[in-house]
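Repro:
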Amino acid sequence: MNSVAAPARGPAVFSGKAFDTCTAPSAAAMQAWHGQSPYGAAAVYIGGQNRGCSQPNLTSSWVHTVHATGWQVIPLYVGAQPPCQTSGNPERITAANAASLGSSDGGDAVARAAGLGMGTGSAIYLDMEAYNAADSACSAAVLTYVQAWDAALHAHGYWAGFYGFGKSSALAMSQAASSGATGLPDALWYAQYDGTADTSTGFPFPAGQWSGPWRGHQYAVNQQENYGGVSLTVDHDAWNGPVAVIG
């Protein structure tokens, strides 16, 4: 499958520590954490039929307020999930629908990001949960979906990121890259819970893949922390990659 050319505009890049949490914290909580916590960026779930949390705080006003406070924002979209995955997710990939569904979900991701004030040149990360990467038919359907999703983002001037697990979904992307597949994500955010706040030390794939500022590493989960008098339960990320372009 041929890829659509990546955006002409270079990505906005953040390097440092980031966090993600299911429901976006209030703007007041973000203000309390800014400068008190070790984090400079926060990931938020902007959409997707399989998104598991409501987002009462996540509005265009919230995005602009937290960005003006000094935060970088990392948009995450929970798209259709693999056919071989055991879950109750309502939107699933099949061999028949992979290309069309990837394209429509990619368009929806762009629309949701734009509606929140995240403009062209932003990176949006596709959340692909764990599955058996050794299942060749399943991996083929997922790859077709991801390629179509990526192409839809590129067609609208956005960078395509991918969130997955080091031993399953992200591994499948690495294997596709090693096999010479085209149309793959621009940036890779991999989950590997080794406690290492770094995107190069312990990188589980060939060193040349997604090298430079194209990586995120989720290295710990479900950590309760308190800064500025506000307690949140968050996942920890080391970041050296693209983020949203705000305003």
